Each structure stands twice: as structure tokens, then as C-alpha cells.
């Protein structure tokens, strides 16, 4: 079945700002990267070939099993022609995967 706006009632055609919606609250960097990949109609395997990142790792980033690193985000962004910062838009600086933070050593 093909999408046709004529099939939707007029009140269902309202545009929303996804960044202000409840949908965005549950997004994480890997899921945003997955959306960008799908927008460009690529499979994980194709993205892996373009980036040099193993397909298994792309899957882990997209499902949240592994945090998306800054380096991987830059490779994915370059392959898709997307700004990698977009993947981290809903994260605070302190919680962004891939940023190096120093752990305080415990006194012994």
C-alpha cells in the first residue's frame, strides 16, 4: 500500500517538531544514527562498508547495547553526509558517549 495524504483525515496531517515531542525523549545517539541510516535507505551492512565499522558494532550502537562513540559517530556522519553532533542532540555534555572524562582515583 502506498501512502496517500488523501486517505488521512485533515486533523491527522498536523506537523510536529519531533525534537519537542515525547518521541524524542526516548531517543539515544544510536537510535538517531539508525534513523539517519534509514533516511538514506542503507542497510547496516552497506553502512559498515562505507565506514569501516563492523556491522555487528553498528547493530550494537543502534540497539543501545553499546554506546555510540565520538569516533564512530564521525565516521557514520561522514558516510551519510550528516553532522555527527545531531546524534547527540538530546544528551547533556556529561552524558555524551565518547567524551573522555577522568575518573577520580579512590584513596587507598
Layout: helices, strands, pairs:
Layout: H1 22-25, H2 29-39, H3 44-51, H4 55-63, H5 70-80
Features:
globular, mainly alpha, 434 Repressor (Amino-terminal Domain), 108 residues
Describe what you observe in this structure.
About 11% of the residues have low confidence. The chain is mainly α. It has a domain of 69 residues: lambda repressor-like DNA-binding domains (434 Repressor (Amino-terminal Domain)).
Number of strands: 0
* CATH top-level class of the domain at 22-90: Mainly Alpha
Q: Considering the protein shown, what is the CATH homologous superfamily of the domain at 22-90?
A: lambda repressor-like DNA-binding domains
Largest sheet: none
How would you state the average pLDDT, rounded? 77
Tally of separate helices: 5
Oligomer: single chain
Strand content: under 5%
Fraction of residues in H or I helices: 25-40%
Envelope shape: globular
Summarize the structure.
With 108 residues, the protein is an all-alpha fold. The chain has helices at residues 22-25, 29-39, 44-51, 55-63, 70-80.
Amino acid at each position: 500500500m502506498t501512502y496517500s495524504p488523501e486517505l488521512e483525515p485533515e486533523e491527522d496531517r498536523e506537523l510536529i517538531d519531533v525534537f519537542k515531542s515525547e518521541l524524542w525523549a526516548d531517543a539515544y545517539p544510536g537510535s538517531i544514527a539508525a534513523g539517519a541510516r534509514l533516511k538514506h535507505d542503507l542497510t547496516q551492512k552497506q553502512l559498515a562498508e562505507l565506514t569501516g565499522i563492523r556491522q555487528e558494532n553498528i547493530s550494537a550502537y543502534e540497539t543501545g547495547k553499546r554506546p555510540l562513540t565520538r569516533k564512530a559517530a564521525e565516521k557514520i556522519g561522514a558516510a551519510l553526509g550528516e553532522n555527527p553532533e545531531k546524534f547527540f542532540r538530546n544528551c547533556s555534555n556529561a552524558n555524551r558517549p565518547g567524551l573522555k572524562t577522568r575518573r577520580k582515583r579512590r584513596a587507598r
